[in-house]
Amino acid sequence: MIDQHEDGAGAKTAATSGAAHNFTQRLISAAVLAPIGVICAYAGGWLFLLATAAAAVAILWEWTTLVLHRAEAKVVAPGLAGILAALGFVAAGHPITAIVAIMLGALISGGATASPLPERHDAGTSLWAAGGTIYAGLAFLGPALLRNDRTFGLSAILFLFATVWATDICAYLVGRALGGPLLWQRVSPKKTWSGACGGLVGGVAAGALVAYASAGTGPVTAGILASLLSIASQIGDLFESAVKRRFGAKDASALIPGHGGVMDRLDGFLVAAAVAIVIAVLRHGLAQGLAAPAEGLLLW
Q1: Phi/psi class of residue 260: alpha, beta or left (left: φ > 0; alpha: ψ in -120 to 50)?
Q2: Cβ(250)–Cβ(244) under 8 Å?
């Protein structure tokens, strides 16, 4: 007969070992991916646009597979075409047309589900299919438009990196160290209020420092901007968790060891980038805000 205390202790040890292994995988993946991201951001131009578009295509594939249980070609193809068209339009300096291309891709993707699809088809399938193109399109458009700002594009991307990465790291470490009440148990059973607050503090500190050092943004303004983007990043994380919970998945895919899929890695970043674009547009209007969004974000 197995002693229940020993059995419980063994299960606890296994869980701790599994968590440590997962954390090690996360560190290794971050150590590989973070420098690649910084190098692409520093290079800018076509390298950054292509890298961002590749991430968006991966997200489109993951979303469609999550929603439909397979990457249906007639759903993925219009979204892929929209992303590639947006890539060309951003490179040519036509951001509004790039947005239109993404929206058209989303409409066609949603329309492709009007005829029954294998295994999964209900009244909401068209909306979920269209949502994949919009979500993937945000993953491309936000960072691409910010970096395409020739004067402050690099500063804006580094500001985003610092804010989102520090938010993610500090939320993870503080949440594990302090625990406490859960943030939204039904959607994410491990995220705590202590982690969210720790992530916010870390994101504001790192983001404000980078914005001040790279673009001369005033400390108070930089802190306010970083707080908005840190909160947006955490909302993006929760949204992606809710989508996965809706379709019964733990991870979007298994492309990145310790992190799951590209969606899992960029969920907060893409929402923060979208909010950064919105801030610029609200300040300077649609045309100017999209033409020089990094300046609209960082110069006050």
Answers
A1: left
A2: yes
Q: Give the three-state DSSP class for 260.
A: strand
The pTM (predicted TM-score) of the whole model is: 0.89
15-19, 22-26, 128-132: which is most confident: 128-132
Q: Over 70: is that where the pLDDT of 26 sits?
A: no
Name the residue type at position 196.
Answer: A
List b or e across 121-136, with b for residues whose CB sees 16 or more CB atoms inside 10 angstroms.
Answer: eeeebbebbbbbbbbb
Stretch (H or E) spanning 188: strand 188-192
Nearest partner of 56 among 265, 292, 246, judged by Cα: 265
Rg (CA), the chain: 20
State the Cα torsion 87-91-96-99 to the nearest 10°. 10
pLDDT tens for each residue of 69-85: 888 888 899 999 999 99
Q: Which of the 8 DSSP states describes residue 130?
A: H
Taking only the tens place, the pLDDT of each residue in 30-54 is 788 889 999 999 999 999 999 999 9
Do 67 and 132 touch, CB atoms closer than 8 A? yes
Closest to 275 measured CA to CA, from 129, 163, 198: 163
- In 3-state terms the chain splits into helix, strand, coil percentages (rounded to 5) of 80, 5, 20
For 183, the enclosing helix (H) or strand (E) is: strand 182-184
Q: 151 with 292: CB under 8 angstroms?
A: yes
Q: Is the pLDDT confidence value at 14 over 50? A: no
Pairing of strands 182-184, 188-192: antiparallel
